[in-house]
From TrEMBL, chain A:
Coiled coil: none annotated. Signal peptide: none annotated. GO terms for biological process: macroautophagy; protein transport to vacuole involved in ubiquitin-dependent protein catabolic process via the multivesicular body sorting pathway. Belongs to the VPS25 family. This is ESCRT-II complex subunit VPS25. InterPro entries: ESCRT-II_cplx_Vps25-sub, ESCRT-II_cplx_Vps25-sub_N, WH-like_DNA-bd_sf, WH_DNA-bd_sf.
TrEMBL record, chain B:
Residues 153-179 are annotated as: Disordered. GO terms for cellular component: ESCRT II complex; late endosome membrane. It comes from Trapa natans (Water chestnut). GO terms for molecular function: phosphatidylinositol-3-phosphate binding; ubiquitin binding. Component of the endosomal sorting complex required for transport II (ESCRT-II). Component of the ESCRT-II complex (endosomal sorting complex required for transport II), which is required for multivesicular body (MVB) formation and sorting of endosomal cargo proteins into MVBs. This is Vacuolar protein-sorting-associated protein 36. Residues 9-157 form the GLUE N-terminal domain. Belongs to the VPS36 family. Residues 158-168 have a biased composition (Low complexity). Its main location: cytoplasm.
């Protein structure tokens, strides 16, 4: 089985038409579906949060059959993820795409569970501690993209479960939980 | 009924008259009535049909759509004993008429052999109610009747005198001699100018005479080819299970000869307003053979070339071809024009089914090599025995129906069998045991 790093590639990764944007509707829908699944799977296992359209992305090329996705195809597949809420464009020019293999709501739930597990229900943590502290090591939160984390925290703040405040040092923000 | 008295005209499936070996159509008039004078046992009343003048016959065809019981028939020019030209003041108001005497045998039938004893003459009249150049029709009628082309048929082919004699008669007008009378002054200058002009005219005329000779030679060639084809045809049926190789070369020879030419091409000059209609019918007859060879569908461009090659000197324009094809909708012909989404136009049999081609494409793309490498339009063209442009159309149609999908890369544009429907999106790693996806997977992973 072909691999990309430690990621196992599906058999159809060697099927040349998989890399050409199909013009026929039914075929194209299925193709997009397969790409969406594969992108999410890959990003999840490799902990990739942002795909730059103009940068090299290993999944978008198959050197074995010498095929790669065109810019149009990449944008099409990522846009399909965006329309399902599984990704977001970070800029108007659609050059960077945030991949949400967990939706923002799911990330918020993970944060709540993390806070409960570590008995921080009324505690205070910095944003940076949540994504790289000792407690988060070994959880999905470890190494989480800051943009996604902030979105999830804002969602929780909106629900009254925490308050975000500026810390004394300017380089970080603090979070006061009240779950 | 007309058929009782006049011989019936044999028609092709597209409704064009079947012509005699060296017969040529010269002029067409629509909306013509053909009737005879009242007589004891001879009566013809044919309403508003198409009148075709050929070198051998005057053919009357029923209008379109054909009224029940109405059939095409003809008067052999050989049976015409006299042409009556009527030019009266009346013709300014009434429809133009053309009368001629026809010899009728004792049995009340128009006689092909005008010298049979006991025949009598009947006056027949054609009333031209339609628009069209009646004068030129009448002139042609005279010309053809005097030309007696039917007599020449009986002579041996090789004798070139038969061809020459037809043209010698028309060339007498150039020799106008200047009687030696002395002309001076302005009149003299004018006279000299006239002479110079006439001599130029004569040399031009001679030049065209050569061209005519060339064209009649071309006609001879076509006739020769036709004759040889018939000989080969009868020869091969007799030989039976003779030498296979010989048979092959004979067949090839036949094909060659068959594609040599159309003896009587429909021209604007002969058909006038009916040009496209007649061209359309002739084309429908013509495409049958090339269609058969190319599996029921052929590119319009290919037909354009083949058709014009067969016509030889009377070339048609692409627009004429297109118009002729579009008119097929209106006639009952077995062929049709088809336009693909890409704009490519083809001619195909009405009985043609895409499914057959798709079935062939399907077998083609599931072969081990094609499973792995896909096929290009030119590969498909070779395997299916069709033109690359057509092969591409078929592949694109098959793609649009979900049978194939495409692969565009620096290597080119290729098609693969469509595996997408078989791939399960819930589990990307599953390959079901049966199906094309499994076949493909085995072949690709073993390579």
């Amino acid at each position: 089985m072909q691999k990309l790093g430690d990621f196992k590639l599906p058999p159809f990764f060697n099927y040349p038409p998989y890399f050409t944007l199909q013009p026929v509707r039914d075929t194209r829908e299925k193709q997009i579906q397969l790409w969406k699944e594969l992108i999410l799977d890959y990003c999840k296992t490799q902990k990739i949060f942002i795909i730059g359209l103009e940068e090299e992305f290993p999944l978008f090329a198959n050197p074995v059959i010498e095929r790669s996705l065109t810019h149009e195809a990449r944008e099409t597949f990522l846009s399909a993820l965006v329309s399902e809420g599984r990704a977001e464009w970070l800029d108007k020019g659609r050059r960077k795409c945030l991949i949400l293999w967990h939706r923002i709501q799911d990330w918020a739930d993970i944060i709540v569970n993390f806070v409960k597990d570590n008995a921080f229900e009324d505690g205070v943590l910095t944003v940076e501690e949540i994504r790289s502290g000792i407690e988060s090591r070994g959880t999905e939160l470890y190494g989480l993209d800051r943009i996604i984390l902030m979105r999830a925290l804002k969602l929780l703040e909106h629900k009254g479960k925490l308050a975000i405040f500026k810390g004394t040092s300017t380089d970080d923000e603090g979070v006061k939980f009240s779950i | 009924m007309a058929g009782d008295h006049l011989p019936l005209a044999e028609l092709t499936s597209s409704g064009r008259p079947v012509l005699l070996p060296s017969e040529i159509e010269c002029s067409f008039l629509s909306n013509v009535e053909l009737e005879s004078e009242n007589s004891a046992n001879f009566s013809v009343r044919l309403k508003s049909g198409l009148l075709i003048l050929t070198t051998h016959r005057l053919i009357w065809l029923p209008p379109n759509p054909v009224p029940p019981g109405s059939k095409g028939c003809y008067v052999p020019l050989a049976a015409v004993s006299h042409i009556v030209s009527k030019k009266s003041m009346k013709s300014m108001f009434a429809s133009p008429r053309l009368s001629f005497q026809v010899s009728v045998g004792p049995d009340g039938r128009v006689d092909t052999k005008s010298l049979v004893r006991g025949s009598r003459s009947i006056v027949m009249t054609a009333v031209m109610r339609g628009k069209g150049d009646v004068d030129s029709f009448v002139a042609k009628f005279w010309e053809n009747w005097r030309g007696r082309a039917w007599e020449r048929d009986n002579e041996e082919l090789g004798s070139s005198s038969s061809v020459k004699s037809g043209h010698e008669s028309g060339s007498g007008s150039g020799g106008f001699d200047s009687t030696g009378m002395r002309m001076v002054g302005v009149a003299g200058i004018l006279r000299r100018e006239q002479e110079i002009w006439e001599s130029t005219d004569k040399s031009l005329h001679d030049a065209f005479q050569d061209l005519n000779a060339l064209m009649s030679k071309a006609k001879e060639m076509v006739m020769l080819a036709e004759k040889m084809r018939l000989k080969l045809l009868s020869g091969s049926s007799q030989a039976g299970a003779a030498n296979n190789e010989e048979m092959g070369s004979k067949e090839e020879m036949q094909d060659w000869l068959l594609s040599v030419g159309i003896i009587s091409p429909v021209t604007k000059e002969s058909a006038g307003a009916l040009y496209h209609q007649q061209l359309s019918r002739q084309l429908a007859d013509f495409v049958k053979f090339p269609l058969e060879r190319s599996g029921g569908m052929i590119n319009l461009i290919d037909i354009y070339c083949l058709f014009n090659r067969a016509r030889g000197t009377e070339l048609i324009s692409p627009e004429d071809l297109l118009r002729a094809c579009s008119l097929w909708d209106k006639f009952d012909v077995p062929v049709m024009l088809r336009k693909f989404d890409s704009g490519v136009m083809v001619i195909q049999n009405k009985s043609y089914r895409d499914e057959e081609v798709f079935a062939r494409i399907k077998t083609l793309v599931t072969k081990p090599d094609t499973l792995r490498m896909g096929i290009s339009a030119s590969d498909a063209a070779l395997t299916l025995g069709i033109a690359p442009a057509m092969a591409k159309e078929h592949l694109l149609t098959a793609e649009s129906q979900g049978l194939l999908c495409r692969d565009v890369s620096p290597d080119g544009f290729r098609f693969y069998v469509n595996l997408f429907p078989e791939i399960i999106s819930d589990d990307l790693y599953v390959v079901q045991h049966h199906g094309v996806y499994a076949m493909w997977n085995t072949i690709v992973s073993s390579a």
